[in-house]
Write a structure and sequence with these properties.
The chain is mainly α. It is built from 18 helices and no strands.
Length: 471
């Protein structure tokens, strides 16, 4: 368990580094590029993302799972790595070719779209899945820290006006490319040279395609929101949505970190038939993710009134309501993430996983189509909430007997109640205080922390007592 705690801390740092740069830069960018500039970047990034999505197929999850199963055998993991990576190079080459056509035909003079091509090129060097499968998180944390610091400095120094959107695009895509290239310098420690006689790359294509479908489905309600906003509304609304989404990435970083750490470990347990131990980890993970997500999500909702104008500046008031609905969706994401990474994927129940995400994609697209023309960015947030709720509920219903869903819900309920009551108390108390923005925000944050911990202890104690009496 000590290794898991260490890996969780390291991977949390890794995930935070991935989101901390946008969060640090957001106050500067909202004031420099404005909502329209940020919206343009977000829109064209979303378009580039689809090409990178096809470049990577399902390698991120499939590669992680495959490497985890052979992580103790250098000979076998060398073969598996090169087989999957050769497939990745093939699909990335095809994606780059198609992106080139897209640029020449539709975006010939668009510097933002051209600069964001670096994200697609970076897929040729993206072997994060290998290091996740090997549980080598320290390597990526140190590497990412250096690159992210350079990205922040370059953005502050080079992005000065609204016209510099393409400069910001070049900095972010160039940073991603450099980060991925640096991974290869660490690879020889764990992987030998490629031997063509032992390579059977095509055997990995079908399972990778199966796991690609979830990525495609998720993209429909993670990325398509911005594309639909750009088409059905305007770039300002995309900017509001993009800015709000950057904030929700903070609690999401911890949720993603736990899933990434536990996936290779649970895969090994399933391989060794350690069913009882894997079930115990799943229940503990559900409690931890609910504790973290409930505190952060309801906490941010409680302080949104003071946080938004202070963080984003003037003209971003609409982000308050968008933040609220997106934060609620994080609670469903947290629960579903544990079910997915610690049960569905390790047990290779890919069909249920794919179907749940396809349902979510259909719900999101439908709600977006109805709500975006009426409510713009807030409507896109509602679509995301409905989609995440659909995915979570479907996955839970599918595995309710196998994981003991009733017990799991009973264990996490105290944290949800604590979050709701904390949010209610902090919000109500703020109405009776006459303070300026910064002191009010400080008081609310401190009060929220104290109240959440108090309510957790209060409800957890009562729940434990009830469970003992029931026994």
């Amino acid at each position: 368990m000590n290794d898991l705690k260490k890996n969780f801390i390291l991977n949390s740092a890794y995930q935070l580094l991935a989101v901390i740069v946008p969060v640090i830069l957001t106050p500067y960018l909202t004031r420099t590029l404005g909502s329209e500039g940020l919206g343009s970047y977000s829109y064209y990034y979303s378009c580039a993302y689809y090409f990178s999505l096809f470049a990577m197929l399902g390698y991120s999850i499939y590669g992680n799972r495959s490497i985890a199963r052979v992580s103790d055998d250098r000979w076998e993991r060398t073969s598996v790595f090169w087989e999957i990576y050769l497939l990745q190079l093939t699909t990335t080459g095809a994606a780059l070719f198609l992106y080139g056509i897209y640029l020449l035909v539709f975006q010939r003079g668009n510097r933002i779209a051209w600069c964001l091509g670096g994200y697609v090129l970076a897929c040729a060097f993206d072997i994060n899945w290998f290091f996740f499968g090997m549980e080598k998180f320290k390597v990526m944390v140190i590497r990412n820290l250096c690159i992210k610091l350079i990205t922040v400095v370059c953005s502050f120094c080079l992005v000065k006006t609204t016209a510099d959107v393409y400069v910001y695009a070049a900095i972010t895509s160039g940073g991603t490319l450099l980060v991925n290239i640096m991974l290869f310098f660490q690879l020889p420690k764990w992987v030998g040279g490629m031997e063509w006689k032992r390579i059977h790359a095509w055997r990995h294509l079908k399972p990778s395609l199966v796991l690609f479908l979830p990525f495609l489905a998720v993209s429909l309600y993670k990325v398509m929101d911005k594309v639909m906003l750009g088409m059905l509304s305007d770039m300002k609304e995309v900017g509001y949505y993009e800015s709000s989404e950057r904030v929700i990435n903070l609690p999401m970083a911890f949720i993603t970190a736990l899933g990434t750490v536990m996936l290779p470990r649970i895969c090994k347990m399933v391989q060794s038939n350690e069913t009882g131990k894997s079930r115990e980890y799943l229940q503990k993970s559900l409690e931890l993710t609910t504790f973290l997500s409930s505190s952060m999500c309801f906490g941010i909702i409680a302080v949104a009134g003071e946080f938004v104008p202070l963080f984003f500046g003037d003209g971003f008031e609409k982000c308050k309501e968008i933040l609220t609905v997106l934060m609620l969706s994080c609670l469903f994401v947290a629960f579903a993430n544990v079910i997915r990474t610690q049960y569905l994927i390790p047990h290779e129940i890919d069909k249920m996983y794919v179907i749940s995400l396809l349902f979510g994609a259909v719900v999101n697209f439908t709600v977006n189509w109805v709500m975006i023309p009426r409510y713009a960015s807030f409507g896109a947030g509602i679509g995301t909430l409905f989609a995440e709720a659909t995915v979570c509920i479907y996955q839970c219903l599918c595995v309710r007997k196998q994981i003991g869903l009733g017990k799991c819900l009973n264990d996490v309920l105290p944290y949800l109640l604590a979050g709701v009551l904390m949010c209610f108390c902090v919000t109500r108390a703020g109405r009776y205080l006459s303070l300026s923005v910064v002191p009010m925000l400080t008081v609310k944050i401190l009060a929220g922390i104290v109240l959440y911990i108090f309510f957790v202890f209060l409800f957890s104690g009562g729940w434990e007592k009830r469970k003992k009496e029931h026994r």
